[in-house]
Amino acid sequence: MKNNTKFIKGLVILCLCTSSAFSLASNGTPKASENSCLIAGEITLYGNKVNVKDCMKLNGVSIDKVEEICEKTLKSASFGKKGLNLTYSANCPASSQGVCLGLKYEGADMDAYYYNRDKSILPAMASGCKSQGGNWK
Predict the structure, then answer these.
(1) pLDDT tens per residue, range 26-67
(2) What HEC string does the chain produce?
């Protein structure tokens, strides 16, 4: 069961960088200074509860593009399940376990912040970050 939980958390990580189409909750449209979005909450996948808390800081794009990318990412990360929420802010919360800096995503420069991760998957996340052209910190 523990390996299954790691696999599911890995799927959530993967989906935070891809897109799909399901409808979930957000705190509305971002304000002009809000170029970061936090996706947080708990969903159940394959019988396992997964606590999600990830944040993206998007640079060099319009607020409309920030909203588009964040909404698309929320839909993908949720696997169609309820329980995840999207909150816009000027910056991602401090105290992340890791951050992938300098990713290129949907025409934006993106920094991806990760929280609440099983420490055993952090090396794989760092490797994935580097393979996508980012710098792990």
Answers:
(1) 456 667 678 999 999 988 878 888 888 999 999 988 999 999
(2) CHHHHHHHHHHHHHHCCCCCCCCCEECCCCCCCCCEEEEEEEEEECCEEEEEEEEEEEECCCHHHHHHHHHHHHHHHHCCCCCEEEEEECCCCCCCCEEEEEEEECCEEEEEEECCCCHHHHHHHHHHHHHCCCEEC
Q: What value does the mean pLDDT of the chain take?
A: 80
78: domain range? Answer: 2-136
- pLDDT reported for residue 51: 87
Pull the structure tokens for residue 7: 């696999």
| Residue in the block written with tokens 């980012």 | 134
| Tally of domains within the chain | 1
Any idea what the Cα angle at residue 53 is, between residues 44 and 51, rounded to 5°?
Answer: 25
